[in-house]
Amino acid sequence: MTTNKFHIRRIMVALDGSPHSLAALEAAADLAALLQAELHGVFVEDINLLRLAQLPFAHEVRAHTATTEKLELAHMQRQLRLQAAQAQADLERMAAKRALAFTFRVAQGAVSAELLAAALEADLLALGRVGRQGQRRQLGSTARTAVSKSARTILLMRPDVALHRPILTIYDGSPGAERALDVAGYLAEENGRLRILIWATDKEQAASYQETITRQFADSNLAIEYRRLRSPDAANLAYLLRLAGPGLLILNDTDSTLPPETVHTLLEELDYPILLIR
Amino acid sequence: METPTPLPPESLYQPCDPQQFTFETTAELENLESIIGQARAVDAIQFGIGIQHEGFNLYVLGPNGSGKFTAVTQFLHQRAPAEPIPDDWCYVNNFEQPHKPHALRLPPGQAAVFQTDMKHLVAALRTTIPAAFSSDEYQAQQRAIEEEFKERQNQALEDLRQTALQHQIALIHTPQGFAFAPLKDGEVIKPDEFMALSPEEQKSIESQVLTLQDNLQTIMEQLPQWQRETQNKLRKLNEEVAQYAIAPLLAELRQKYDAAASVLTYLETVEKDLIQHFDNFLDKDDTPLAEAMGLTTSDGGPQKNAFTRYQVNVIVDNGSAASTDAPTGAPVIYEDIPTYMNLIGRIEHISQMGTLLTDFTLIKPGALHRANGGYLIIHARKLLTEPFAYEALKQAIRARKISIQSLGQIVSMVSTVSLEPEPIPLNVKVVLMGERQLYYLLNQYDPDFVELFKVAADFENEMVRDEASNLAYARLISGLARKENLYHFDRTAVSRVIEHSARLAGDAERLTTHMQSITDLLREADYWARQQAHEVVSLADVQRALDAQQYRVGRIREEMQEMILRETILIDTDGAQVGQINGLAVFSLGRYNTFGKPSRITARVRLGKGEVIDIERQVEMGGPIHSKGVLILAAFLGARYAAERPLTLSATLVFEQSYSGVDGDSASSAELYTLLSALAELPIKQSFAVTGSVNQHGQVQAIGGVNEKIEGFFDLCRARGLTGEQGVLIPAANVKHLMLRQDVVEAVAARQFRIFPVSTIDEGIALLTGVPAGELDESGSYPADSVNGRVTARLTAFTEKQRAFATPPKQKKKKAKKDTEDKA
């Protein structure tokens, strides 16, 4: 295997110090090691925070004491610098563990815009499903923007579910699904468990898809589980994926017969790590 | 008055006739079931053991070696098996107050079973509890509770965010919390743009932000409350799951120990504690730090400490099949080393990082625990020499419970962590054994003793010697031979042992009950029989053993005799001397080493104020009994010879060449004889030695050690050559005590040595001087040539001189002249 197969040579990871971003960093580092790719970290100083700190009435409500304190620009800047330093330290630690080449930089501006810009320099953008804003299950705003506006392959991570859990993917015979399956097979080789949802219009086609896939992986020692998807609606899909258990879901949303709204609903609702191939 | 005649040889030794026995050797005899010659003591023991009231504990008194221990243990071992086996006891954790462990009572043999059951319970829980907590159902419930909290929090924030957005204000996550920022075109308003707004607009925004901040703060303040609620829900879930896992196992135990209420109560607390501490049973990453520091022990594994609390510490196990000495009835315990801790039990500590720690598993039982419900035998002297032991024992008996306290606590010297185990009810019969003196001392000085040891079993020193007791002795020998694996004794040997027993009793009509001496003699005789390749112990072997005993301990005796023979110590055995006599003293240097030795007593008289000076007393080498003897003889002297006039005599009495103390009054007759000799100026035959005490009427009274004294003088005379003149004067009352050595008896039979029984001083002095003592005639005076007459004359002369000294000067000349005549 070479990096050329997936065309991923540079991995950009968005760092903000949240548990989700740490998970993204770890997954990105693993992936970089696997694909022999470069690892680039970016930390964005949120311009909104700096602006807020300059407003005369700006106060913050502290999370752990529930007290209200006046916001000062200098204080805010110092806090952001500290977060950046912490992010850099995390990156260094992860990279050192895997002997990876890495870079780190700090950008200032609107978070989503800066990340989209940074993503242009890379083949894959890794980030947390949600940012520091909390523990929502829905996709964070930054992630949502990245999914909808970036053309790059995107890895959305959450804590507690590592990259090498069982790999899940959806196969519908489209070229996009083929690519997703390739990647899934490649990543799954590590632990040998692959769970595939087959979406076909009828039984025969599903059987033929399954046969094709089985042939494709005949030489590997993967344990592949198949499940047939009867309807491509998001709720059904989410239900079946939950049944398949937590794992990394690999999808292609650009070159697939799956309706894009289904994919987006899945991204929003299914609290699994997702690798979105583009 | 008749002069006493020498005793015939048959009075000197009362042999035991072997012909009275019908057996050949003791092999034909049966063991003696009862204890020989101790009817009174045995009755007392029977009474003391049988009576079931507080304070009726026993003190068995008698000299060491008299068979007290054998008697008591034999009796108790006969009785105890018929009594009920007492209950088991164990200590378990007190979950509420760990420093006060609970005591549990269980039927005999059940404590060990319970211990194993609890061990199995913990082992079973180590699989069932983790299984319960790793089930999908539990994990789903746990996640649901956690999610609920998150949802609630997020929902509250989300609602607020939406409200804010309606006013074009964003809720922004800051590094340390949350803040509200007014928006413009979807971004936070730039500061200069904000400043460009009209003051009204600014104010409106500010007030909106302020309201939102207040709302946010309210939400944040609620968060800990919600968190607590979540924690409570989680705990309740955990408890439910734990209880569900634990309940069936405990139900099994409850059913098994249905009868023991205390165990059921304990299981109740165990269940509560298990539910509270269920997480101990879940597999956790054990802290490697603790292990590295040695906080965990190797045998129990790293989780030992967590499960120790459910262990059962068996203190008394009265029925475990594993223990070889499992009692079949009430326990009979002899505590050889009755230290405080061996009696009461102790609480051990283990050292952890320099700190001494303990818990209920380190409580160790004492003799009282083991003897509870039965009998405890202790040597009184050992008990009294162990610090605090006697007090603790009394305390336990009186309180009827065993409270384990460390000695450190009692003397308040240690302030380390310690325990107060729940006291265990005590029901024990204590048998103390010891010397008589200890008993009387305790009786006198310790009021508690009188209260707690109400029964005294007093062992006799000797028993009456008759045919029945002879046979009993023979059976005793038979039993001892079997018990000690000795050769059996033939009847001549038995007779010799009985004779020796009489000699040990110091009385021809008594036998000793000092079993140890007899047992030792039997063992030694057996040794000599084996040396001689005999198959039965015979008379010769017994005699050999006795001779060897005497030879082994004979160094000092022989050395003293040699000093006399070489005239370093002056003792005459022939000739006659005024104011000089051979007294007899007994030296007792250990059990088999008692011997007699002659001692020269001298007296000098002169004019004086009527005093008899005991030189031994003056230099404090004489004991009180000796002084008493001297005072008595002085009183006799005064009353007999100077009843109606002043006794103008000054006499001195001394034991010559004595360099250690003298006590006893057995020399008082000898002292009186030598004083009379000095006064009468009649020489005493030095071929005699004298023993006997005297009373104020001049009667000679019995003394102790008569056999040894006679033999002591006999040995000296024989060494110098027996003349037939030599002999010993003994009190007539002592004749029945004579059990003399065979060579003495033979010498008397051959008329080479004589033993005179003497009843009065007059008989004695006549024998010693060869001059009649003299009896009062009708005029109230003694014949002038009799001893008494000469003594009276001498005392009269003293009185005359005294009067002469006291006469006024003009009469002095005449007086002086008379004195000169007297001297001539």
Give the topology.
The complex is a heterodimer of chains A (278) and B (824).
Chain A: E1 10-15, H1 19-35, E2 38-46, H2 47-54, E3 59-62, E4 68-70, H3 73-98, E5 102-109, H4 111-119, E6 124-128, H5 141-149, E7 153-157, E8 167-171, H6 175-188, E9 193-199, H7 203-216, E10 223-229, H8 234-243, E11 248-252, H9 260-269, E12 274-277
Helix pairs in contact in A: 1-3, 2-3, 4-5, 8-9
Chain B: H1 39-50, E1 58-61, H2 68-79, E2 88-92, E3 102-106, H3 110-133, H4 136-166, E4 169-174, E5 177-184, E6 187-188, H5 191-196, H6 199-256, H7 261-276, H8 288-292, H9 304-308, E7 312-316, E8 332-335, H10 340-344, E9 346-347, E10 350-352, E11 355-357, E12 363-364, H11 367-371, E13 375-379, H12 380-385, H13 389-399, E14 401-402, H14 407-410, E15 424-425, E16 429-434, H15 436-445, H16 447-452, E17 455-458, E18 462-464, H17 467-483, H18 491-505, E19 510-512, H19 515-531, H20 539-552, H21 555-565, E20 576-578, E21 580-588, E22 594-607, E23 611-614, H22 615-618, H23 624-641, E24 649-655, H24 668-680, E25 683-685, E26 688-690, E27 693-694, E28 700-701, H25 706-720, E29 727-731, H26 742-749, E30 754-758, H27 761-769, H28 787-806, H29 812-823
Parallel strand pairs in B: 1-16, 1-17, 8-13, 13-16, 21-26, 23-24, 26-29, 29-30
Antiparallel strand pairs in B: 2-3, 2-7, 4-5, 5-6, 9-12, 10-11, 14-15, 18-19, 20-25, 21-22, 22-24, 27-28
Helix pairs in contact in B: 1-2, 3-6, 4-6, 6-7, 17-18, 18-20, 19-20, 23-24, 24-27, 24-28, 28-29
Describe the structure.
The complex is a heterodimer of chains A (278) and B (824). Chain A has 278 residues and is an alpha/beta fold. Chain A has 9 helices and 12 strands. Chain A folds into 2 domains: 7-157, HUPs (Rossmann fold, 3-Layer(aba) Sandwich); 167-277, Rossmann fold (3-Layer(aba) Sandwich), CATH 3.40.50. In chain A, α1 packs parallel to α3, α4 packs parallel to α5 (141-149) and α8 packs across α9 (260-269). The longest helix of chain A has 26 residues, at 73-98. Chain A is elongated and about 70 Å long. The two termini of chain A are 19 Å apart. The model of chain A has no long low-confidence stretch (mean pLDDT 83). Chain B is an alpha/beta fold and 824 residues long. Chain B folds into 4 domains: 23-34 and 462-552, Helicase, Ruva Protein, domain 3 (Orthogonal Bundle), CATH 1.10.8; 38-85 and 327-459, 3-Layer(aba) Sandwich (Rossmann fold), CATH 3.40.50.300; 110-257 and 270-323, no CATH class; 568-792, Ribosomal Protein S5, domain 2, CATH 3.30.230. In chain B, 47% of the residues lie in helices and 16% in strands. The longest helix of chain B has 58 residues, at 199-256. Chain B is elongated and about 165 Å long. The two termini of chain B are 34 Å apart. The chains are: A alpha/beta (278), B alpha/beta (824). The A-B interface holds A 46-49, 51-52, 54-64, 66-68, 71, 76, 79-80, 82-83, 110, 131-136 and B 150, 153-154, 157-158, 170, 172-182, 187-191, 194, 205-206, 209-210, 213, 216-217, 220-221, 223. β3 (59-62) of chain A pairs antiparallel with β5 of chain B.
